[in-house]
Amino acid sequence: MKFIHLADLHIGKTVKDFSMIDDQKYILDQVVETVKRENIDAVLISGDVYDRTVPPESAVHLFDDFIFNLSQIPTKVFVISGNHDSDERLNFGSRIFADKEIFFCTKYDGKLYKRTFKDEYGPVNFYLLPFVKASQVRHFHPEEQIDNYDQAVRTIIKNSDINPEERNIILSHQFVAGKTGVISLGGSESLATASVGLVEQIGYDCFDDFDYVALGHIHKAQRVGRDEVRYAGAPLKYHSDEVNDDKSMPIITLNKKGDLNIELRQLKPLHDMRRIKGTLKQLLAPENVQNPEDYIFVTLTDNDPVNDAMNIIRQTYPNTMQIRYENDHTKEIAMVDPSKLAEMRSFPELISDFYRQMYQTDISDEEMAIMNKIAGKVGIVNEAD
Ligand SMILES: [Mn+2]
């Protein structure tokens, strides 16, 4: 059996006001072509189908096309919801789609969703675990100790009927970490970083009974703990921090139990996303201009600000997403430590500047006397000053 693992499609996403919809269509068409050409038996989509709980019409239209195109090929489709999806909306029509071997699981209902299919080596069990929070799982298993996401997922797995002798595949959309606990983020995940690594983190070993774990949530493709526990990553670069990431989709060939092969198939984007750096003159010199239609993050090194830089650059690179400067001035600013700046100035100087900023007028002697008195009381300045 052969299957493709996708995740974090974020259909309908905009990056710096650029709609990604044409880029997403281009990628999803590649998936359909691959499924057709290589007789792929199943497509696994591990959550964050959409970028928002209420996706724009163009996004719903594209996903509808994608699902329809897959339904015309003899392949199965498995979809779980991610934290960006609305479980109810993504669930629309799912009971009807199941007749076409398109299986959605968007809400954990107390029992791990399972579908079993047979190939020449016997049964293959597909388990679908949509994004869950600890509180949701606690609701169904009040007798269990569930204080964090790790305990929540372990409880779900413990309460299911996994037969480790058979071949088991699971789709999950969670923050799963390996032995070291280190996960490299893409940049476009919009995770609550304060909670990452604490309550949300799940140890990869809770999936030990699974032959392949198709993860979604983290946008940078990577294995977690072992090769078969894997984030597919978002299929496109959605953030300037992802310009150097390789975008691929795992194609998994599952033979008999214990015999599995993973190929990372490169995805070709409609537009690449990349950074360019130099003076305006260098960047616009015809010999330096390549693939001008790419999504571009520009770093200008000119010492003098360029008037109307965005319009000028967009005449050559129409999909310029952002311009920032890196020159002698910005370096100078970066070298000054703002906290030191404050240390070098007296309290009256700082408060006068602040007052001027707020009220566009100078502080009066009377007001300054009041501020000095308060500052003395709270111990910012010596009261004798
Ligand atoms: Mn995501």
Structural descriptors:
385 residues, alpha/beta, Purple Acid Phosphatase, chain A, domain 2, 3 domains, six-stranded mixed sheet, 12 helices, binds manganese (II) ion
Description:
With 385 residues, this protein is an alpha/beta fold. It has 3 domains: 2-266, Purple Acid Phosphatase, chain A, domain 2; 273-333, no CATH class; 336-377, no CATH class. Helices cover 29% and strands 25% of the residues. The chain contains 12 helices and 19 strands. The chain has helices at residues 21-37, 57-71, 87-90, 94-97, 134-140, 149-158, 280-284, 309-316, 328-335, 338-343, 347-359, 365-377, and strands at 2-6, 14-15, 18-19, 42-46, 76-80, 102-105, 113-119, 122-129, 167-173, 175-177, 201-203, 212-216, 222-224, 226-231, 248-254, 260-266, 273-278, 295-300, 320-325. The strands form 5 sheets. It has a 6-stranded mixed sheet. A hairpin with a 2-residue loop joins β7 and β8. α5 runs parallel beside α6 and α11 (347-359) crosses α12 (365-377). The longest helix is centred in the N-terminal third of the chain and has 17 residues, at 21-37. The N and C termini lie far apart (81 Å). The model has no long low-confidence stretch (mean pLDDT 92). The structure holds manganese (II) ion.
